[in-house]
Design goal:
Strand content: 15-25%
Radius of gyration: 18 Å
Largest sheet: 5 strands, mixed
CATH architecture: 3-Layer(aba) Sandwich
Number of helices: 4
CATH superfamily: Glutaredoxin
Number of strands: 7
Length: 163
């Protein structure tokens, strides 16, 4: 250690080399499953489940409650996350896109995440084996608040799943 109580560079490097990821606490009983589907142009899309955060927005072009979420995305809003962290999840036959956001068309993802209809969101983390937080997407503010809480390690669900 240095005189001011810090680790010297060699000691810090040794500790970092042996560090293990800390699991992220989940608030949902829904297991994380692979995100595989296709783009609106028909290309195969398989998202990296080791990516730190994924905010899945289950939306539809016919969903009135989705309009403010889509406007937020079109204006560059990302609910406190980065461009590559937000995914629009659609059902077959629907077409919705937002600049800089991945669009995944996959009916089986809706089923796997227990989503019966839009607007809904699920937040995933690479170190969690379950959904970190999820809920009805009541609007930009409610999703942003849920993401902020989860990023601070305090996930909360409004959806209570029964096994």
């Amino acid at each position: 250690m240095t005189a001011d109580g810090r680790l010297d560079p060699e000691a810090a490097a040794a500790i970092l080399a042996s560090a293990q990821p800390i699991g992220v606490r989940a608030a949902s009983s829904i297991s994380k499953v692979p995100l595989i589907g296709h783009s609106p142009r028909g290309e195969l899309v398989a998202l990296d489940m080791e990516h730190t955060w994924w905010l899945l927005l289950f939306v539809s072009s016919t969903c009135q409650g989705c309009l403010d979420l889509l406007s937020h995305l079109e204006e560059g809003g990302r609910f406190g996350l980065g461009d590559s962290d937000v995914v629009l999840v659609l059902r077959d036959g629907d077409v919705v896109e937002a600049p800089g956001v991945t669009t995944l068309i996959a009916d089986d993802v809706w089923q796997a995440y227990g989503v019966s209809g839009p607007p809904f969101f699920s937040l995933l983390h690479a170190n969690a084996d379950r959904v970190v937080t999820e809920g009805v997407a009541w609007g930009v503010a409610s999703i942003s608040e849920a993401v902020t809480r989860a990023l601070a390690g305090q996930p909360h669900n409004e959806v209570h799943r029964f096994s």
